[in-house]
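User: For my dataset I need records formatted as: sequence, then structure tokens, nothing else. Please produce one.
Assistant:
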Amino acid sequence: MTKKVIFIADYFLGDFFGGAEMANEELIDLLSKRGYEIEKKRSSEVTTSYLKDNLSSNFIIANFMMLGGQCKSELYKCNYVLYEHDHKYVVNRNPAEYPDYMAPKQHIIDRELYESATAVFCQSKIHAEVLKKNLGDINTINLGSSLWTEEFLEAAAKIKINKTKNAAIIRSNNHIKNQSFAEEYCKNNNISYDLIEAPSSLELMKKLADYEYFVFFPKVLETLSRISIEAKMAGCKIITNKLLGVASEEWFKGDATQILEEMTSAREKTVDLFIKTLESKKKDNLSSAGITVILNAYRRPYNLKMQIDSIRSQTIKPSQIWLWINDHEDNQDFDFSTLDVDRTFNNDYNWKFYGRFAGALLADTEYVAIFDDDTIPGTHWFENCLTSMNIQEGIMGSAGYTQTGPRALEYEPGRGGWPRKNKSLMRVDYVGHAWFFKRQWLSHLWREKPATWDNGEDIHFSYTAQKYGNIQTYCPPHPPDKPELHGSLLGYELGVDDKATSNNIAVPHEKFFSERDNCIHTAIKGGWKTMYNIKNLGEGK
């Protein structure tokens, strides 16, 4: 992959002194220090012939309001990411003017530019959420930060915080900063305030360090708000409205020291994310990935040929297909030698759910794909998983569960994958039916003995991967109109018979889910941070 990156923006720091330009300049500097050759190009200077001459380069597109329409069409053929600083997909650049931040379709612009990007880097959680709400199935990456120079952050750390004054409001002629409303609010609430200004961000921070409160009521949905972060680094409490993007970030609740540390670490985190995305494998190179498939034979051996045919028909071919056979009378008369598999584990014992994961330890490929015996993937399933891995590494699965309550049964409507047809990559608590993951992550599964060997391998894998490897779990996109991307095509047809463990008369329904409740509670007690516990109980504690 070329180490050349073309950085396109309307303006650069020498042209205009703004937060976006400062962040762009710092990203350029960080990439240069990592060995990348950066070519700056103003959007007004980009031509179609220039883009054609640089098809092999990687592009970072920041502000692009002066980029011509024909250039945008040519850009779709290139490998590019968008570094989104505001809301350029909305005609007025302010989704806050619409109910629930949802602009009507006729007010959405440049949709294809966003859809064709390898990824869209957003500034905060709410920024990414609102962008996807308006544009749909877009690959977004939330940076959850902006960039400051190392020198600025070192100087900011030395500012003496001495709260001797009450509230500060930034003096600004920019109407979207809403100075007049901030003043009116202070007057109506008997809050003494000063209007402050300074020639630089650092000098402004020094002034803010004397104030207890920073009062700021933006008129637009701020994607992040650098000034609010600087105020927090100066020890200020923030009086604001619901339009502060940075407030959607959990770290923003921290004190001055914690936020300074967060912005310092964001420098390397941000450049790592850009490099990882720029160097991600393109679709036509995904076939180089090594995948070992492990199928499971228990009570439905008659599904195996259909599974194998589907797996052999994948757009990304597996390296090998292995078959793990658990002992059961339903498969004793089946002739496994007729199947097109490369390796067979023929056990005289029922190792239940964990056996196949033990067999996977013998794989010699980067990736492992495991399927339940009722799961028939679409022909683009592996390609879907690998593409999703390039966006966000994690355990991928065809049926995802996000707890909506403390019990195993309480996952509706928090499901993802084929049961709910999520249109974009979706984080979940755990996945089942089909798993796709890096082989090296299997080591985490065995770090702790499961709560039971009879149930809950899906829960235990996601729990231990998160705890010991900081690896989260996802459902790749399962758009309703593209079944070829789905991890399971016949889930309802093949998975709800009397041979399903959850329906097995030998294991009462109540006992099955009681075991799963125990698996969930054991994992949470061990430190698993489920979405439900993070939201309702505070980081799962």
